Each structure stands twice: as structure tokens, then as C-alpha cells.
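Deliverable D5.2: sample structural annotation.
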Amino acid sequence: MQSALRLAARPRSVIMQPTTKCLPMDCTYCYLPFRKMNHLMPVTVAEAVAAAVNPWAADDPAFEVVWHGGEPLATGREQLATLMSPFKGAQHSVQTNAALVDDAWCEFLLEREVHVGVSVDGPEDMNTHRVTLAGHPGFRVTMRGIERLRRHDIPFSAIAVVSDPAPENAARFYDFFAELGVTTLGVNVEEEEGVNRGAKDSDPVRATEFWAALADAWRAHPVIRLREIQRVLNFAGAVLGSHDTAPTPTSAPWDPMPTVAYDGGVVMLSPELAGFTDARFGDFTTGNVLKDGLDVLVAEAEERTSWIPEFWQGVDACRATCPAFAFCGGAHAANRYFEHAGRFDGTRTRYCTTAKIALLEGVTRHVRSHAH
């Protein structure tokens, strides 16, 4: 049976990989295969992407070009400015380890009104996986960059990877980001993806307790937007609201979420697949923007991409068997592939258990405990 879930006609954002280098960091959980190499995106790739993005951005002022998939600041200011210049009307954002942030970078970001996301995993003792290329702890160099951002009054969000979702650490974890002054916090439980095959199995019970404790901490001091909790609240609002009009993962089309690698190759749905190859599916790309327009690749993605039909089969299997499907909508493609020995039609993954099911159950538990 072919899945009723289809890709949306256009994305809400595009992820751009200006360089593969993650200088100066070498995080032990990183999924990127070429992070120690310095493959740079040529301006011809950015120009080709902009040809499709600019009309999309004209229709959608919130359309975002996300510079990610390496350390974008390692590209250098002059080169990154050149890559950004063909885009007209789109918002730009960078996801950075902040180690290279200095006054000149702050001026660059302010001048171009770039949204900034920082990768940091909480207090210093929770950052043991974030090390430099020399093997030294990376927390203090990241914090120096964050202090520069704060000194220049540049707002920033954060993404944290939690390798051990321990409930006893949840409040201290949340308080760190609240004191840091982040606008939004995204929490990713460490995943088995790409070259990171060492992610630990997390106890689902402890993971559920972690999300419940995190919700408690947030409710006690709701000064930042917590991405995962907001997703649960949005889902609850959609379920309790008009079921005929409220979009849920089972009714809304999938955002194709194209990732454009440094060489122009385009991977749909899962940025984590970029740079990898498979005996059955090749390099996972739908095509290359130097040969076909990004708008064409998005429009024809399901016909052009060899692995997507198998992925839809996995989504259908989840829909038929998983009670949490209405919230989750099906596991991410990369998690299926890397956790199910190179197949996209498997069902439950470690990511599902700790980052979706445990999240839903933990936040629900928090709501029930505060119902009276």
C-alpha cells in the first residue's frame, strides 16, 4: 500500500552545507563523515539554489536558509558572504559551535540579520562529548563565543544533545539554558546515525522520567521556548481542536526539507544521509542543483529518489502498528536506515522510543500531575 503521506509541494526551509569542516570541534557523537576535511561549497551551487529559493521566499517571508552540516563559520566571512549574496528575501540562520565567534563575526551576523543557533549540551559536566580536534574539552571555547554574542546583544537559540537522559539532571540542565538567555532550546537525545555508531541504549522509563522532569522545570520557570514540549502541546491542541482542520503528522504533507551538500547534491527528508552511499540506493541524492533546479528536484522527489518508496512502506507499517503514530507520524528516514541495517521499512527505532514516545508520555505525565 502506498502511503497517503506525501511530500509538500515546496519546503519551508533549505539546509546548506557551506563546508564539511567542523573546526575546531570533533564531537564524539557527530554523524558527519567528512568533518575533518575542508570541502567548500562553490558559489555556483548557492546561485543555483537561490534561483528556486527566491520565488519561494517572495511568497513566504519566513522562508529560511539554514547554514549547517559542518561549522559554517569555518567557511570564513568573505566566502560565507559570497554564498549568501544570491539569496533575496529569505531569512538566514547558522548553526554554530560558537568557538570561532569574535567581534568581527558578531558584526557580520548583525549586519545581515542572521539568526544564530548554538550547539552546546548544558553545564560543563554534560559536555564531555564536545571536544576539540586536539581532544581537549570544548565547553569553554564555546562559552567564550556565547559571551561575545551576548555582549553584542545577538539573540540565539540552542541545540543540546543529551547522551544520558537522566531525570535527576533535568532541572539543572534546563536552568543552565534559562540563565544563558537562549530564545529556544531544542533537545536531541543522542542518536545512532552516520559515523556515530556508539550511542548508548537509553532506558525508556528513565527517558520518560527525564522528559517529565524537564517539563516540570520548564513549567516552574517558562522563560524560554522548549521545542519538544511545544510540539507535544501543539499536538494536544490539534487533537482537542477541530479535527477537520487541525494538521497533525497523520494529515499534513511532509516537508521535503532539502539538504544541499557542498557539491550541490540534494538529499530529501534527512540531512544525516548526506555524504553516505549504499549498495542499493547509491548516494541517497535526488539529484544535483548544478544539473536540475531545486524546484524541479523537490517537485519530482518521489519519482527521482530510489529509497523514498521503501521509506513510505515503513511509515505505513508504523501507522498500522504504533499507538503513538498520531504524534510521531513515523520515524525519521536516517534513524530507520542506520538502526535497521540499511533498510527504510523497519518500524520502531531507539530514536522513536526515547525522543518521541517517551517525550509524549513524559509531558503527558507532567500535565496529569498538575491537573488539580
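Annotation notes: The two ends are 45 Å apart (CA to CA). The chain has a mean pLDDT of 90.
The annotation will be released with the project's public dataset once the embargo ends.
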